[in-house]
Amino acid sequence: MNRFQLPCLRRLLSSRRHQCPPPYSIDKSSIDKNDVILTGDRATGRLHLGHYSGSLSQRLALQGQCAQTILVADMQGLTDNGHQPGHVATHILGLVADYLAVGLDPDKVTICQQSQLPALAELTMFYSNLVSYTRLVRNPTVKHEINDKQFGQQVPVGFLTYPISQAADITAFGANLVPVGDDQLPMIEQTNDIVRKFNHVVGEPVLRECRALTSKASRLPGVDGKSKMSKSLGNAIYLSDDNDTIRNAVRSMYTDPQHLRVSDPGRVEGNVVFTYLDAFHPDAQHVAELKAHYQRGGLGDMTVKNVLTDSLVSLISPIRERRKALMNAPDHLLDVLKDGQQKASIQTNQTCQNVKRSLGLLVG
Residue 148's pLDDT is what? Predict the structure, then answer.
């Protein structure tokens, strides 16, 4: 990118045309400036509305409150894509573009690439000696995901041990707050098990325990009404989707199967369209009025879907345009990762040195 293009990109990134209500109820007074947050995503695809209503919104709300690192988890992406590493490699810069497009600021958060921080792999190896095979396979999150991915007896060792890798990530940055969904709570528990065992073995509090920062909002369902919006299930609306794709996705959404005529009273509970309106429409009072009208009858499904379509187009369009501009500026994205790596390397290397020293491995 040349010196004339960069100011244009900066102006585009600073633009905001739509603000949706925050899906997370965050008590910022509970976040201390000395807290450290670690979060991130596997580099296995584009980010979608489920990410936005969950982790991305929370990161945005917390940026600038305390130290926050966002990890592009390419190594963990390989745990179930080892046979196709190109699938992970091709999504690294896209993930960074998604972060910047929604408003995450590299001056306020550290964005870095997992595989470029060797200390994380070293810590994973040290911690693996403190965790039994039985403990790993008993982890409910791991058990569920192994079943979900239908590995059978062909579970990659890296996938089985990724809770150890996550513990390495968290402790390397000294993070004490980790934003997760309820399904990831066993991972936090396992991290703290490792921390306590390590500190007990070496006889000093080298590592810091963490706690989960959970959402008070429900997980966003997929457009097909499934319990989770997912890349693998093909039921997602992506932050890079064009307007026609968004419109078609909303049209396919399930509403109330008993709402056969416009005049019929309809149910809003479990109605995917209203779930999305609650999450993304900027006017909660208008949504409440739509619900009341729908419940007493006289409001058609297509009318409600059109309201949702307009809201989502308003939200996603500027994000999509910023993302497009960023993907056309790969050098800028690489600079963001390079700067993040420099910051992250200092802390992760120091943690690794402390671990080695406490284990008595730094001889001479």
Answer: 79
| Contact (CB, 8 A) for 311 and 280 | yes
CA 66/CA 30 separation, integer angstroms:
11
What are the Cα distances from residue 109, in Å, to 62, 103, 135, 311?
A: 9, 11, 34, 28
Residue 333 to residue 72: CA distance in whole angstroms: 12
Distance between CA 202 and CA 355 in Å, rounded?
Answer: 9
CA atoms within 13 A on the CB side of 183: 9
Q: Which residues of the chain have pLDDT under 70?
A: 1-29, 215-218, 364
Residues 6+ apart with CB under 8 A from 39: 55, 58, 59, 68, 69, 70, 71, 178, 179
Q: Which residues of 52-75 are buried (b: 16+ CB within 10 A; e: fewer)?
A: bbbbbbbbbbbbeebbbbbbbbbb
Per the DSSP assignment, residues forming a β-bridge with 73 are 42
129 three-state secondary structure: coil
For tokens 């794709």, the residue is 245
Q: Are 39 and 55 in contact (CB under 8 A)?
A: yes
Q: Cα(205)–Cα(196) distance, rounded to whole angstroms?
A: 8
The position carrying tokens 């619900």 is 291
How do residues 53-73 score in pLDDT, each as one tens digit?
888 988 998 999 999 999 999
pLDDT score of 223: 92
Residue 176: name the closest of 204, 209, 207 by CA: 209
Cα dihedral: 42, 187, 39, 219 (round 10): 80
The predicted pLDDT at position 229 comes to: 85
Contact between 39 and 59 under an 8 Å Cβ cutoff? The reply is yes
- Give kind and range of the element (H or E) at residue 180: strand 177-180
pTM for the model stands at: 0.90
